[in-house]
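Work through this protein:
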Amino acid sequence: MVTKEQIARINALAAKKKAEGLTEEELQEQAELRKIYIAAFRENFESQLKNIEIVDPDDERLKNAKEH
């Protein structure tokens, strides 16, 4: 999970990169934070996909359930 502090730091580094550039240490920190963020995003997205249920509106079982 990505903390609010990590997201704030990602945004701060992005703003500094646009304004004046980053040092080598800051570039490494930014890369590490991005890896953490992307890993958390993928984990969350995968979890959401696993919980999706595809429903066929023409399925007879659904039509019978709606009638009752």
About this structure: The radius of gyration is 22 Å.
